[in-house]
Design goal:
Elements (H helix, E strand, L loop, with lengths): L2 E10 L3 H10 L15 E5 L10 E6 L8 E12 L3 E7 L8 E14 L2 E12 L5 H28 L8
Antiparallel strand pairs: 1-7, 2-3, 3-4, 4-5, 5-6, 6-7
């Protein structure tokens, strides 16, 4: 089973708490705003325990040329180390994902100073069809890495604006 791991890093000029909480506790539709063939997220449901280990949410996206609109996937919080690490799993994909069956994302925050936080953003993508390896490699290295940068920049804007959290 092919496994692909991508990490991008940056520095946020904001307090550690903002850099840590914003990507997971704010409105996810403000983070995943559409990119290339990836549709914009529209809303989530069944998110009563989101932000806690074991918490899940059902994610929905708008219609685009690549997706009919509606339920996309399930997100699950695998780990939360306060002001240090989020680990989530994305699975139960409702459209064909090039043979990938789950993505595991990690958002690591490392304090540099009172107003600077280093971010290490990692995704590990798990595939079930080794025959598609060349296409999966291209997807991960050419598209997914760019998509991660896009999402990270959206998180940066939200953290700097101190956007209110939807979850605790």
């Amino acid at each position: 089973m092919p496994i692909f791991k991508i990490t991008i890093s940056t520095t946020f000029n904001c307090p550690l708490e903002n850099a840590f909480k914003t990507p997971m506790l704010c409105d996810v539709t403000l983070v995943h705003t559409g990119y290339g063939f990836m549709p914009k997220l529209s809303h989530v449901t069944d998110d009563e325990n989101w932000g806690k280990i074991g918490g899940t949410k059902r994610v929905y996206a708008e219609k685009n040329m690549n997706f009919k609109g509606g339920y996309v996937s399930r997100d699950t919080v695998l780990d939360r180390k306060e002001n240090a690490l989020w680990k989530i799993q994305v699975d139960d994909f409702q459209s064909w994902m090039l043979g990938f069956n789950r993505f595991v994302g990690e958002w690591e925050t490392l304090p540099i100073s009172e107003q600077q936080t280093k971010i290490n953003y990692t995704y590990t993508l798990y595939a079930t069809l080794p025959i598609l390896y060349p296409f999966q490699w291209l997807f991960v290295h050419l598209f997914w890495k760019s998509y991660m940068r896009h999402a990270m920049e959206n998180v940066r804007k939200l953290a700097y604006a101190q956007t209110p959290y939807m979850y605790s």
